[in-house]
Write the structure tokens for this entry.
Amino acid sequence: MQNSALNRRLWLKQAAAGTAAVGVGTSSVVPACFQQIAAASESDSGQILVVVQLSGGNDALNTLVPYNDDAYTAARPKLSIGASDVLKLDDEHGLHPSLSGFNELLQAGNASIIQGVGYPNPNRSHFESMDIWHTCFRKDQRTEEGWIGRYLQSQSSPRSGDAPAMHLGHNAQPLALASRDLTIPTVKSLKGFQLRGDESAVVSELLGNQPMQDQATPTAPADSSLLGFLNSSTSNAIAASERITSAIKDYETPVDYPESGLGAKLKMVAQLITSQLSTRVYYVELDGFDTHAKQADSHAALLRQYSEAVTAFMKDLKHHQLSQQVCVLTFSEFGRRVAENASEGTDHGAAGVMMLCGESLKPGLLGQKADLTDLQQGDLKHQIDFRTVYAGIIQDWLGGDAETALGASYEPMKLFA
Amino acid sequence: MRSRSLCHSRLFPRGFALLLAVFVTGVTAHTSVAAEPDQELTAADLLPDSVVAYADAPDLAGLVETVLNHSVTQQIKQSPVGQQAMQAPQLAFLENILKGFEGQVEMSWQQALKSFTSGGVCIALDAPTQGVAVLIKGSNAEDMKKFSTLALGTIQLANNSLGKSKKAEYRGFDAYAITDKAKMAIMDQWLLITNNSDLGRLIIDNYADKTFDQSLAKNSRYQAALKQVQQCNLRGYVDVEAIRALNVAPEIYRGTTDNLVAEFLFGGLVGNLQHTPYAAVGFQLSNEAIRLQAASAFDPENIEPRQYFFGEDGRATAPAIVSLPETLHRGSLYRDLGQMWLLSPDLMTDNANEELAQADTTLTTLFSGRDFGEDILGALKPGISWIVVSQTFSDKAPLPAIKLPAFAIEVQMIDAETTTREFRRVFQSFVGFLNIVSAMNGQPQLDLDFLKEGEVSGVIASFVPPIDKQDWKKAPIQYNFSPSLAFSGDRMVLASTTELATAMCQAKADQPNLVQPGDNGLMHFEVAPIGSVLEQNRQQLVAQSMLDKGHGMEAAEAEIGILFNLLSMFKDATIQLRTDDQHLKFSTEVRFVTSN
Amino acid sequence: MNASSEQLFLNSLDPQWAWQSFQPSDSDPWNFDAAAHLVRRASFGADDARIKTLASGTPAQAVDLLLAKADNGEVFEQVSDQMADTLLASDNPMTLSAAWVYRLLFTPEPALENLVLFWHGHFATGADKVEKASLMWQQNRMLRQHAFGDIAAMTQSIAKDPAMLIYLDSVSNRKSHPNENFARELMELFCLGEGNYSEHDVLELARCFTGWEVRNNKFRKNRYQHDSGSKTVLSKTGNFDGEEAVDIVLAQEAMPLFICEKLFRYLIADGVTTPKSLLEQPAELLRQSDLQLLPTLKLMLGSNLFQSSWARHRKIKSPAHLVIGLMRGLKATSNSHRIAEGIREIGQGLFYPPNVKGWAGGRDWINSSTLLGRANLIRDLVRDPDTKFDQGGLSDYLKRIKADRPDAAIDLYQRLMMVTALPDKTRQTLIESFPKFGKDKEARHRGLLHAVASQPTFQLG
């Protein structure tokens, strides 16, 4: 992997040098572009953010369990998880027993949990609350762009022709990725990155060998920058496709990804990352957290799916020596009501937890323990505004301007060591 | 493409005639002494009893004749598509070949086929040798020799190895190597083709020595299986026990699935493969019907964990089905739904069970906290039946642009009094829930009302008509429905329309009923009413065809016309699953419209 | 990137020369290539015979012919309206999208559809938010009705268009809380562009639209919620209602300039900042024609600038132009659903613009996944046995028009669908690879077409 990245940089440098030597005067359009690519690759810090959205409202109290809190056991006679079952973190907190993989990450200092995350005047509608998490604004404010979309838009345009972000899955694209100026692809499978058909070998070879500069075409003016742009984009696309194809073909990982939807998606993300795409943000979803009835079994299954997939993903990245480059951010549109309902489930609530995985984090529990006696309409009050978490991610991980991305100024939370 | 096949059709017959001449002379020069033919001998007598899969056509010529003279074939021939196909160069090429062939053998190809295969055609797979053998029994040794040599020549011609086959003799019979692997031998009126010399020798030895003790025909599983498909044109037999022992494709016998619907419909059938010693399949074609059937040995002792499927004694019968005019489809199954839900951990894979746990959460929410398996499904007697009828639309109500048939499901309650109340309430909350969801999505709202007509009571709902009468002419798809839940004694009917709910509650099951004792499940489709529902939606179909094929309107209408013509050839179709003393039988039958 | 040389060229252009009707000369002749360029930009390309016809007259005749009503236009209109009406029953906007593709493929008035697509991107409204197919269809019909004509009428209609108001979260607009969304987009995206209004104008304009709402999928005015007080919008003061407000915006000097700038980008060149001096003439014409579009359209399409070698290389084909252009160029028919899905995957879902700004076009169409997507879509389409060329096979069709040798086929594709010839080496490789593309001639030709259409030069035009 290291090698191929090196080769790619070398190739770009040579390309830039070669064309620069030819390109004098007016036809310097293309060399400039290649120099840019080469330079960008060179300085590629390549910090990548993977967002995992738990749709439906994850029950925070049964994720990070205050197992010693009498108020907790009192509010949840049937659903509370006892001291003997939780994966103990300290005298007060334990993790849901399904989260054993995540617990390992946590113990190794490669994960953190932020407690009591939310926002003022919580909205308990799935759609509206999710929109707030996506856009950082309420319904009557600006809702057409998302925080990631705005962040990407504020960055210089993607240098390699790779998409700046990707959404994986079959759902509609989350609003978080929307922006006025960028179109983010939704990728259903990696097949979209491969040329199809028997003739694909010929086509791929032809497309991969585009002229470095606009010569030779009898009718195109020498300074047609659009054609230069198309040529270089095509070469890049084929190069990316070949990298992805070989990344899939030769993909070797000692890690067993779980056979779940999220497992498959995160494996795809890992394959894309190892293909050295310059994509900065990957977005995946896990649905089903709206556990109004008979929550215990299904919530356990969902958390297990989450934990197994994320743990496998982080292990896989470590194996490929890419774990330093990646941070996984997990959120849900709200937590659930403190008291269980009569159907052995829980209803829509307010403050919840966010999870982070990565190697340069301030690990462990962040924020304060939820106070189960000080509720707001039966829900936990939030201690931390989710936008301060976003601000921390943007400023300290992605290296962007948080205020632009969030549309307002928030004190970035210290998330990284 | 065209030019090449033209050139073929000109050249090939000439080469073919030449070839025939060479071979026919060769054959006549080398007429062997025919042993006394045994007219009673069958392929199964020659095959070893270690054969694990076997298929045969006892009267291939008869089957081909039925196909060619069939009313459906005739109609296809007359249709534009058929006309076009008849003019295809490939067909002309084939006719040329047939003519050449007929000239050489001096009989029509139909006669030839009859003579060539009069004793049956079969193919068998033998386990110990891993060999496949094809055996064809003709009417007499002379014709068989003629045909076989011709066939050999044709194969050689296709392989560009005319006259180059290795020839050998075994036990006095001629044998040829026709390709690298395949060998062919002619034993009087028998033709044998096999890919395995050991198997080949075994069969010839059996024939020459007249040793039939260890033969397939003596195998009791084979005998029992064939009895199930005796009358069929094509028959198959599988020695499931032997295959299970070989451990081929173990996932088939694992007995768990991740598809709930498949389990519901066919779980018992698949589950029985874990136990049954054999299975038989048969195909039957007549002027009136086409029939596919399968049978496997069945022992009610072995049904666990599928008591829900077969009943505790393994012999449960599906509930009787009512009959209504304009019925497209009726079906009935014996299934204990509550039991199935609770048994699902044994029936489904771990993955599927995790999904089911999540579904359980959602369903229990939907049923206001009542446990879906225990309280909801458990309150019903085993067995479920359903019906689909075409509906007529009045101009006093909004007319949906897409016109769907109405459908209803009937179940019986264990404790009618309590359960009626429960379900009535659940239905009302469900309608309320739907209304909230629809309101959020700007969809039409449902209006609730109560039904009381004689014995029949229930809750009905209907969509509030659009305010603007302009919108009534092409109303949304919802206006096909007036969801209703009706009760009559123990019976509970959930129907897509109030009309059907009432009609079904009032209807009595016909006597004798479509469902016969021993029928575990039955589905019946009536084609004419299906046609009339499609007819109601003809415009939709035309528009779809335009989009799909890029047709203009006329071309699209013509295409839809062909679809309707095709449909008019069929009368009805039945799918049936039944158990009797020893067998589990599955059959599908499609009946044609006959001219009288 | 290095846009400066482009910009320099554009800035140095003499507007007088630029908008003069195209005068053919020895160096810039009116020929097949010029006619093909016109028909690609003004519509979605055309087959060999049609372009020959256009090239046989004068440039001005060609423009007139393209923009004229077709003899069978009304019949086609009826059939496709009926089809769309029928399909509305499924209430699935994607089906509607396929119905529009059908129109693009078969309409005898493709230049009109090209403009409807322009206006759809201009007044961008997305079905994923509106959800109701019938409302999207209603808007589409309205845009078609005015596409060549009355921009004022179109803007007035869009202000009351239920789909638009739903899309912009403006279904209710109360006196006490004027909804600024539509007011802002009206000036920023639809009529004037940024810098031609103030935040105060947005607030005041929003007051004019109070009481405008959508109920039961229909527009209505709620007079109890209308703020009938005095407003000052763009320096005009009065008790304006919504219609008057739209008129005030339309009367701004920036309005025709803004529209002409967008048209310039749609028809003439991507990704350049068009100097105001260059736009003044078409803008003036638009104003003089009472915002009737046709004269300006003719001016642009018939101009020296439009036919200049500079302009010919200044556009990247949109997904619709890429696919529909290929289909119409080779008289091809296929499954409209598949095309609609396909162009949506590569960034241009009809009825699914990415956001309120519509499709940015130009370089925005291109990234690694859309480039591969373009190649794969063409592949799927060309290899689909349901795709017929002049109702039959591709090689039969090519034979009929005497272009069935691989080099002749490439020449044909270049003539019809490309502005820049393939590099010699590419061309050579393609001809040599011809036998590798399939078992028989038909398969080989389909493979060759896929290979040609996947080339970067093919994306230009």
In short: The interface with chain A takes residues 351, 354, 357-358, 360-362, 364-365, 368-369, 371 of chain B (CB under 8 Å).
